[in-house]
Amino acid sequence: MKPTRPIIAIVCCHKLVDGQPTQAVYQKYIDAVQYHGGNAILLPYTAADDSNFSALMSLVDGVLLTGSYSNVAPARYGATHIEDKPDLNRDTLSFQLLDYAKMHDVPLFAVCRGLQEMNVYFGGTLHPDWRPTGLFYEQHLEDSSRPIEEQYQTIHDVLIEEGGYLASFGQKWHVNSLHKQAIDRLGDSLQIEARAPDGLVEAISLSQHPFMIGVQWHPEVSYDNDELSKFLFREFINHARKRHHTPYQAQASQT
Ligand SMILES: N[C@@H](CCC(=O)NCCCC(=O)O)C(=O)O
């Protein structure tokens, strides 16, 4: 019997917990999905290797790519610098999920590292560190010596582009910002949805897809009290719900 709420697969990150390798997702991502009516499940990196991947994904109605302190492997976007915070297994799973979501019209929402993965998956590149570029003046990086609540406080505006998915929300909002990397060259078929006042790309979407959106900020920390965060999670889960109500056979014939 089908569950009543859409199943949202959340990609896990590699962490050490009590000195032991662990597949982990911050609670806030799970809470955001549950609050907006989804049924969160966590996907460890082993899901990517599994010959059962397609069968597993046929049960999934939406994919959430979370933020992470780790970075996308430079080789994925043609860069050669040494990366000291890699998570190669997460890269593999996220890219496979992006592939599947693109091919099968699965709703996908990507946050921070997730947006960066989405851009790289579609052939774009990243600034490995936006600070030495001299291109941006907003405060995009948190002060990690401050309490967590302060790190995730809203810090700059985002200017929403006309004609995109977010335009139905409004023209301008204010967001938090905690990232060292940033989009340099935009990936193919991607549309810029919003920029910071200094021009940094803050939100992207895939054209010709029901819902594939990435944001550079963190809506999951304010999923129940910030209008844009609520809009994003509501739209994501609503799209997943529509897919959930499509009979599996009809979905399979889309392949
Ligand atoms: N490592 C990348 C991406 C930054 C990012 O995703 N931060 C998230 C912090 C943890 C969280 O709240 O999910 C970069 O530095 O740009």
Automatic annotation (TrEMBL):
In terms of InterPro entries, this protein maps to: Class_I_gatase-like, Peptidase_C26, PuuD-like
UniProt-listed PROSITE patterns: GATASE_TYPE_1 (PS51273)
List keywords of the entry alphabetically.
Hydrolase
MF terms (GO), sorted A to Z: hydrolase activity
Is this entry keyworded Methyltransferase? no
What Pfam families does its record include? Peptidase_C26
Name it: Gamma-glutamyl-gamma-aminobutyrate hydrolase
Lineage of producing organism: Bacteria, Pseudomonadati, Pseudomonadota, Gammaproteobacteria, Moraxellales
